[in-house]
Design goal:
Blueprint lengths: L3 E4 L4 E4 L7 E6 L10 H19 L3 E6 L6 H10 L3 H18 L15 H13 L3 E3 L7 E3 L35 E6 L17 E3 L1 H13 L2 E8 L3 H13 L5 E8 L2 E3 L2 E2 L10 H4 L5 H9 L7 E2 L2 H25 L10 H8 L4 H19 L5 H17 L19 H20 L3 H13 L2 E6 L2 E6 L10
Parallel strand pairs: 3-4, 3-9, 9-10, 11-13
Antiparallel strand pairs: 1-2, 5-6, 6-7, 7-8, 11-12, 14-15
Helix pairs in contact: 2-3, 4-5, 5-6, 8-9, 9-11, 9-12, 10-11, 11-12, 13-14
Length: about 475
């Protein structure tokens, strides 16, 4: 099958044809680093990590650009509240962002440009927009520069709106605008903001508008036309609409496909810090393992809303543990196999159908079910094929427990791994000796003691195997 993706612009699933054969350029909007990312933020990272893995598995050379917005009004406001420099505040939470997508097994972008590192490119874009009659300097002497939406008849095509039906944002500053819906390309410096958060420009000192930043960085690294622009559905308007307008207004074709992942909600409402319902990634992975959180997010179709709850998260963790259990047991029986070079055709068809992960997971679980039946007969070519297929599918989804980054990580972590493993194995040897001499009371006592410590023991034909029980907590806001 040919890969088909849903394009927000055309509101249809279309055949994917890259600008340059064999190569794919992706830009997806990174986080405004105002605070620690929650699950809703990191969902986009996971979605586009799966897209990248599938494209590479399909033979494409993929370039991923994901920006960091490190200068923005919310960053200035929150850093002022904390009494720290805005740049220190931004860097602190940029590092938290990196930690979050790394802990969930997301590969870093090919390049991750910061907005503050691309001011010259932004000024160049503003100048060209002014020259073409699509932008103007505010006449009030503020130094603000705005995009004139009525100068661009196509404005609204991405979000399928007409200009006259749009309303200005409630928090929009109307000063110096021809139309209240015009958006800022440049914000003139004011005394109530740090001077370090401004740069010289032909219109006066100031800082870039949020929408301008992405157009400048996407163009610099991916060219005037590239394959996929992505982000959360909440960015479609006004952010992506404004990006599209200012980029095409200077003659750039910009993105061939617009991909938007659905939102993560809690109690039916968008997850956000302002609502106080954000499940911070660093806290959630104290409840379940990071690989289990990733499983929870990937199993839904990227255009379907994910209703976040800890009950659903715990259930997903159990689902992954069943898959992981097969991989572990089959590896013990067979001695291990490499991931399959050729995946089940139904899995490939599902992924080619707009990244249909629910159907892909159905193929995965069916293969695990069949593989579990084969385990009773010991090592066999059929079991090896099943294990190879499962590992191949898990690799595309970023969930193979025997591949990096998961293979080198441990639930107990760090330098204690070998020590803990040795101590548990010593106790299991004592338990086995007790069983052999029919001292079942001693055997059960050892098992109960391990269980109390959070160590789960499973007796297999190859001998006892241990794992850590999933952590639990009664505080759902932690």
């Amino acid at each position: 099958m040919t890969l088909r993706l849903y394009d927000t612009m055309t509101a249809a699933v279309r055949d994917f044809e890259p600008v340059h054969p064999g190569k794919v350029g992706i830009y997806h909007c990174g986080l405004t680093v105002q605070g620690a990312p929650h699950v809703g933020h990191i969902y986009k990272e996971v979605v586009f990590d799966v897209l990248r893995r599938w494209l590479e598995r399909s033979g494409y050379e993929v370039t991923v650009i994901a920006n960091v917005t490190d200068i923005e009004d919310k960053i200035l406001a929150k850093s002022a509240e904390r009494g720290v420099p805005w740049w220190a505040h931004a860097y602190e939470f940029e590092r938290e962002l990196h930690w979050s997508y790394d802990v969930l097994g997301c590969r870093p972008p090919t390049y991750e440009p910061r907005a503050t590192g691309h001011i010259p490119e932004m000024i160049e874009l503003i100048d060209e927009l002014i020259e073409r009659g699509h932008a103007y300097v505010a006449p009030d002497g503020s130094g603000d520069v705005y995009f004139d939406i009525r100068s661009w008849p196509s404005y609204g095509e991405l979000s399928h709106q007409k200009i006259d039906d749009m309303e200005a944002a409630e928090d929009a500053d109307p000063r110096g605008k021809r139309d209240p819906r015009d958006f800022a390309l440049w914000k003139g410096y004011t005394e109530d903001t740090p001077r370090t958060a401004s740069w010289p420009a032909p219109y006066g000192r100031g800082r870039p508008g949020w929408h301008l930043e992405c157009s400048a960085m996407a163009g610099k690294y991916l060219g005037d036309e590239f394959d996929i622009h992505g982000g959360g559905l909440d960015l479609r308007f006004p952010h992506h609409e404004n990006e599209l307008a200012q980029s095409t207004a200077v003659g750039r074709k910009f993105a061939r496909f617009w991909m938007h992942n659905a939102l993560v909600t809690t109690a039916g409402e968008k997850m956000s810090k302002s609502m106080g319902n954000g499940a911070i990634v660093r806290n959630v992975v104290q409840r379940v393992r990071p690989i289990e959180l990733r499983y929870y997010l990937v199993q839904s179709h990227y255009r379907s809303v994910v209703e976040f709850s800890f009950e659903a998260l715990d259930e997903a963790a159990k689902g992954f543990q069943r898959v992981e259990g097969f991989v572990t047991r089959a590896t013990e029986v067979t001695g291990g196999v490499e991931p399959a070079a050729e995946l089940p055709s139904d899995f490939g068809a599902a992924m080619d159908d707009d990244l249909g992960t629910p159907a892909a997971f159905a193929v995965l679980h069916n293969t695990v079910r069949d593989g579990n039946k084969l385990l009773a007969d010991g090592d066999s070519p059929a079991l090896r094929d099943a294990l190879a297929a499962v590992r191949g599918m898990l690799g595309v989804l970023g969930l193979d427990p025997l591949a990096e980054p998961w293979a080198s990580r441990s639930d107990v972590g760090g330098e204690l791994t070998e020590v803990v493993d040795g101590l548990v194995k010593a106790l299991l040897e004592q338990r086995q000796s007790a069983r052999e001499r029919k001292d079942y009371a001693a055997s059960d006592a050892i098992r109960d003691r391990l269980k109390a410590l959070g160590v789960v023991v499973e007796d297999t034909p190859q001998g006892p195997r241990w794992s850590l029980a999933a952590p639990t907590t009664t505080d759902e806001g932690s």
